[in-house]
Specification:
With 405 residues, the chain is mainly alpha-helical. 60% of the residues lie in helices and 6% in strands. The strands form 2 sheets. Strands 3-5-4 form a 3-stranded antiparallel sheet. A two-stranded antiparallel sheet has the order 1-2. Helix 5 crosses helix 7 and helix 15 packs across helix 16.
Length: 405
């Protein structure tokens, strides 16, 4: 197809209205028909419905997937900076600890949520509250404190499975609800509908969608369906970040500040993207592109911050071996975007040619279910990290030679 039509999807995912604005008098309906035809070939329907009953879908062209892959590569690089910073802050007490650093960044995200409140909270007041130097003085500060605790709990959750009970608990913490959920979600403020169950099942499904794609779908499904009678948009972000943490990015997820970038930057309009997704019957690609831009902005900013810091300090040689292992893990992820961080880390720690590995090795390493272990090991086989053999009724996995990987 003519690149003239594809650029309205690949370069910037534009609606018909915005294409008309750009082309002006040169626009005719053939343009939009060609754009729709191009998108149709790369459309993926998701087993989660909108509030009007349509299946959510998104368009993943090779160029859009490349943008996602580049985010994953940048996150790998950022992770290396994080490990170096942790080592440096342990060595140089004048540097803020990484725990304090991430706390401050997450508080910035929480403060951005409150900007539309009657009494917007400040970073300094919230820092004092979180560190127990003072107490909330009004309802907005109390709400912000709850939001911080819920987000922090979601972001640092290392469980690879998102559960309905976990979401119920987070919502109760936010709203002070004490009643047990019933079978009527909206009537009782939080109730598990079949559509909500479908969303959670999809988020837990082992598949080739990236963490950012799944997070965007989670955000849209919750915001569109209005599953939560109160604080629905906040819960959308809680589950958005929880979806990302499921993929093993807990160590620096607080740095992403995706919501803050969406709110602060006039060129990245979250609400406008959400409305476009609604206008096109659940096309989440509009939101996905916003999240990609926001994540990219955050990562670029922190790369500059860490580079500046690391240039001013030298790292103790005793830390190098740990960093080398981390770099090796990240290198695998960089070269193989469909290999998760956890799978890569397993391989780095289990690559003895004289040992036969099985699913229990992965289960014990990753603290995950049998199905997740099976999927992960088979994925590593498919990408030529291991050979799979059957001995009796049991499958074993043997390391491939280095020249085969």
């Amino acid at each position: 197809m003519n690149k003239f039509y594809t650029k309205f999807t690949d370069d910037k995912y534009l609606s018909k209205k915005n294409i008309i604005k750009i082309l002006g008098k040169n626009y005719n309906e053939i343009v939009w028909n060609n754009v729709k035809e191009y998108r149709f070939h790369y459309a993926h329907k998701i087993p989660v419905k909108t509030i009007s009953g349509n299946k959510i879908y998104l368009v993943l062209t090779p160029k859009i997937m490349l943008k996602e892959s580049n985010i994953i590569k940048k996150l790998s690089k950022l992770s290396t900076y994080v490990h170096k910073y942790i080592a440096l802050s342990n060595q140089n007490k004048e540097l803020m600890s990484y725990k304090d650093f991430t706390q401050q960044e997450l508080l910035k995200e929480v403060v951005s949520f409150s900007e539309t409140s009657k009494q917007p909270v400040t970073l300094s007041s919230m820092s004092d509250i979180i560190n127990k130097k003072s107490y909330p003085s009004n309802e907005d500060e109390l709400a912000a404190e709850k939001i911080y605790k819920i987000l922090h709990k979601s972001l640092t959750n290392k469980d690879n499975k998102i559960t309905v009970n976990e979401i119920v608990s987070a919502y109760k913490d936010l709203t002070n609800l004490h009643q047990v959920p019933t079978n009527n979600f909206r009537a009782k403020k939080f109730e598990v509908t079949e559509n909500f169950k479908g969303l959670i099942s999809f988020l837990n499904l082992e598949c080739d969608y990236s963490f950012l794609t799944k997070a965007a779908i989670a955000f849209y499904a919750i915001k569109n369906n209005k599953f939560f009678e109160k604080y629905n948009d906040l819960m959308a972000f809680v589950i958005f970040y929880r979806t990302i943490s499921k993929y093993g990015y807990q160590e620096f997820i607080e740095l992403l500040k995706i919501a803050k970038n969406c709110f602060d930057n006039g060129n990245i309009s979250l609400e406008a993207a959400f409305q476009e997704s609604n206008n096109y019957q659940g096309d989440v690609t509009y939101l996905l592109n916003v999240f990609i831009e926001a994540a990219d902005m955050s990562i670029n900013n922190f790369e500059k911050t860490f580079e500046k810091l690391l240039n001013n300090y030298s790292l103790d040689e005793n830390k190098i071996s740990i960093l080398e292992m981390e770099l090796a893990t990240k290198n695998i992820v960089n070269k193989n975007p469909f290999i998760s961080y956890r799978q890569a880390k397993f391989f780095i720690n289990h690559n003895d040619e004289n040992v036969h590995y099985d699913l229990n090795h992965f289960r014990n390493f990753a603290k995950c279910s049998y199905e997740t272990a099976r999927y992960s090991m088979d994925n590593l086989v498919n990408h030529k990290f291991y050979n799979k053999e059957k001995i009796g009724k049991k499958f074993i996995y043997k390391i491939k030679n280095n020249d085969e990987v």
